[in-house]
Amino acid sequence: MTAGPRVAIATADAIDDAAGLIRAGRLVAFPTETVYGLGANATDDAACAAVFAAKGRPRFNPLIVHVLDVTGAAAHVLIDERASRLADIFWPGPLTLVLPRRADCRLSLLVSAGLDTAAIRSPAHLVARDLLRKADRPIAAPSANRSGEVSPTTAEHVAQSLGGAVDFVLDGGPCAVGIESTVLDLSAMVPILLRPGAVTAEALSAALGTEIARAAPVGGEDEGLASPGMLARHYAPGRPVRLNAAKRRAGEALLAFGADAPIGDGVLNLSTRGDLAEAAANLFRMLRALDQPRYAAIAVMPIPDNGLGEAINDRLKRAATPA
């Protein structure tokens, strides 16, 4: 039986230890405002390859690279006026930008999955930022879970999913946003939303003064994905997921939403107040809690599709896609 990872509260000393492991090419899970990331030195080919191995992740699925700020990003990718404007408004925060790699880019080619672009963001979580400063490296960090499974929003989720495949887990408590970052492709003239998140398409459109196109999900056999989170099936629990359920059927658990939702055993409510931010923060934790053998499936009540609801429904639709 594989031993579990070392898990430690994210004190200054623990972050120092984690930074040393990153510099040494090891894997460290750490909290961000979105979900926990599985971190590796983004300039180290072997370390990046270890991320793919730990997650069981397809090599055609890129990794998001975390940096402190736009200056750190500009060392690796080309920052145009649009990217600079969005970074000024939304960084640090839950927005990833896909941008052309510089000719002298030092990032491992593995993070780009064979493309001439890289996905990059500046996280807002204080632990993540301290780790970046102390490691003094860009950190490639997809969600810290087995590929395709429900993303982790606590240190416990990471340990349950990855076990000894990760060397160290920094415990910074539950993630505030609870779903992965918005991903916007700026590598061409028309901005394309590759993955919705807490930074909404409406906010991006307002900041850029232009409409945002939306990318369609792709099947698991396609190569050359521009971003993580684009596979048609992703974020999936072990139980089948049934969407837009008015009520649950016999044997089902219920992921509820709103004040008028049913209550009882096997029912968890994303937000009794109908608050989409609260629902996003609870989404993955509650999916995990209902993913039990005693339930045949997980029924999910309708979620409004406006604002942050677009990102919540994106995750639920992918979770409900058959394997």
Secondary-structure blueprint of this entry?
Elements: E1 6-9, H1 12-23, E2 28-30, E3 37-41, H2 45-55, E4 64-66, H3 70-74, H4 81-90, E5 95-100, E6 117-121, H5 126-135, E7 139-140, H6 155-162, E8 168-171, E9 182-185, E10 192-195, H7 201-208, E11 213-214, E12 241-242, E13 252-256, E14 267-269, H8 276-290, E15 297-300, H9 309-320
Parallel strand pairs: 1-8, 2-8, 4-6, 5-9, 10-11, 12-15, 13-14, 13-15
Antiparallel strand pairs: 2-3, 3-7, 4-7, 5-6, 9-10
Helix pairs in contact: 1-5
Description of the structure:
With 323 residues, the protein is an alpha/beta fold. It folds into two domains: 6-214, DHBP synthase, CATH 3.90.870; 241-320, no CATH class. Helices cover 28% and strands 17% of the residues. It has helices spanning 12-23, 45-55, 70-74, 81-90, 126-135, 155-162, 201-208, 276-290, 309-320, and strands spanning 6-9, 28-30, 37-41, 64-66, 95-100, 117-121, 139-140, 168-171, 182-185, 192-195, 213-214, 241-242, 252-256, 267-269, 297-300. The model has no long low-confidence stretch (mean pLDDT 93).
CATH class of the largest domain: Alpha Beta
Q: How far apart are the termini?
A: 28 Å
CATH architecture of the largest domain: Alpha-Beta Complex
Q: Overall mean pLDDT score?
A: 93
Number of DSSP strands?
15
Briefly say what this structure is.
The protein has 323 residues and is an alpha/beta fold. The protein has nine helices and 15 strands. It folds into two domains: 6-214, DHBP synthase; 241-320, no CATH class.
